[in-house]
Every structure is written in C-alpha cells, then in structure tokens.
Write a structure and sequence with these properties.
The protein is of the alpha/beta class. The chain has helices at about 5-15, 20-30, 45-60, 80-90, 100-115, 150-160, 180-190, 200-210, 220-235, 240, 250-265, and strands at about 70-75, 95-100, 120-125, 135-145, 165-170, 175, 215-220, 270, 275-279.
Length: about 280
C-alpha cells in the first residue's frame, strides 16, 4: 500500500476521533474511558463495565510481562482507559501513542486527576511509524485501533520491531469474518471512515510470518453482537438526552448505523476477539 494511502487512513482516523459529535458519543455512551468492545457478564450490563472486563481478560493472558519494571506501548490509546487500568493495577509504565489531539488532552487530564501521570506518558503520533527504537517494550498493546490502519502489514512490522525478545503482543480489533466479501460490510463501516476490515486469518498469517510464537486467537465474536445490541439500545433509549450534547443529525445517523452492526453480527459477517503472541 502506498504512503499516500497510509497517510490518508491516518488523517481519516484523526478527523473521526477529533469530531465533537464522535467525542460526545463516546463520552456519553461509553463513559469517556474506553473505545472498545466489552466482554459481558449479562446482556444488560453497562457498556463501561464490560469494556473494563475486556482489559482485565487481555491483561491476564500476558500477566508475566506486566509489573513495576515493565513498559507497555499502547497503540491507538484513545481516552486512556486501558492505560490507566494497566498502570493502576500492575504499576507498569505505559507509553500511550495516539493520533487524536483531543483524546490525548483528555487522557493527560484524567491521568493527572488520578495520580497516574508519572506512570503514563501520552504521545501524539501514528502507529504506522512508531517513534521508538527496536526492542524497547515488554508489551505492545492495542484495542480496536488497527482497523483504522491503511497498511496493517506495516503496522504489525512496526509493533514487532519495538518488542523486546520474549515480549508480548496483545490486541483486539474489529474484523470481517473470514470469507466475508468486503462490499457486504461497507455500509456498516462507513461511520468509521474505514474502507474495509482485516480478517482473523490475515492476522494469523502475518503474525506467523513475522516469526512470533504462541499465536493465539480467543474468538469472542458473540460478545460483539451483545456489545452492539447494548450500544443500539442505549442510543435509542437516550436519544432525546443525546440530542442535547450531540448534533441531531449525528444521533439519527447512529440510530440508522448501529442496527446495521447488530445485523452484520447476526449474519456472521463480523469477528472479534483477543490475539496474543510472543516474540
């Protein structure tokens, strides 16, 4: 993929997350901490609680690489919920690399309010060109960010490059189910400004080609259906309230788009889960 295409995808992600309507939606419906799929204890659980469980579940898979003397690179760190959860629980140092100035400002402010600013460094930049030397991090972490990449092969190359020997790569991502034609999902992913998603088989193949070991994919696609049902329900239930903080046109767009995600999940067109592997 060309540098121009990669830069275009990065700019699209920046525009999406720096939009006031998008920011207000994540703050109101997700709680302004996390922007990723939850693992639900029951179908009516609050989105924010389920989102935190995803972080805990992923962290448990690589707990041997987390601790006071460890450093984590969080790619596409958003509002910083996962970074704060990791730093707060494991006392590890987290470098949070993210492209959105607006999200980064909120991330830094919340870190300072919670006394975690000495453990978390928020850096504005693109994960296509990670601004750190080879072998720098014990863990490279990401949640629902790789879907915004214009060159996922290059992104994975970069993620592995900065891992220490025996370091762990752990990530979740929104994916097309293997065998799903790209045009089937275009109306679904249009809200994100994304052309198409990767598939689980793409990630397995690329991770193996990069020489990573113990490549595992915990397929939790059923949670994606629950998650988008919850988002759709919450948005519809709170539509009047949301129109006070989000433009009415954007709310209407959500009410139209989110049920498409639900239907795509029901049709088996989308996939989601936790990838873990070792260098």
């Amino acid at each position: 993929m060309s540098d121009e295409s990669t830069a275009g995808a990065a700019e699209a992600a920046r525009r999406y997350y720096d939009t006031s309507d998008v920011d207000a939606f994540y703050a109101a419906v997700w709680g302004g901490e996390d922007i990723h799929t939850g693992i639900y204890a029951h179908e009516k659980e609050p989105v924010a609680d389920a989102s935190r469980r995803t972080v805990a579940t992923a962290a448990a898979k690589i707990a041997d690489r987390l601790g006071p003397n460890r450093t984590v690179l969080d790619l596409g760190s958003g509002y910083g919920g996962p970074a704060r959860q990791l730093a707060g629980e494991f006392r590890c140092r987290v470098v949070a690399l993210n492209i959105s100035d607006g999200q980064n400002a909120r991330h830094r402010k919340t870190n300072a309010e919670r006394g975690l600013d000495t453990l978390i460094e928020v850096v504005t930049g693109s994960f296509q060109d990670i601004p750190y030397p080879d072998g720098q991090f014990d863990v490279v972490w990401s949640q629902e960010a790789f879907c915004h990449s214009g060159d996922r092969k290059r992104l994975l190359d970069e993620a592995v490059r900065v891992l220490k020997p025996q370091g762990a790569l752990v990530f979740t991502d929104l994916m097309a189910a293997d065998g799903t034609p790209p045009d089937v999902l275009r109306p679904v992913v249009a809200r994100l400004g994304v052309e198409e998603f990767a598939t689980p088989s793409f990630y397995r193949r690329q991770l193996s080609e990069l020489g990573l070991t113990h490549v595992e994919f915990d397929d939790l696609s059923d949670q994606l259906l629950t998650h988008y049902i919850r988002l759709s329900e919450e948005t519809r239930r709170r539509a009047t309230e949301l129109r006070d903080v989000i433009s009415p046109d954007y709310v209407e767009g959500l009410l139209e788009n989110l049920p498409r995600w639900v239907e795509a999940c029901r049709q088996g067109h989308l996939s989601w889960g936790i990838f873990t592997c070792r260098r």
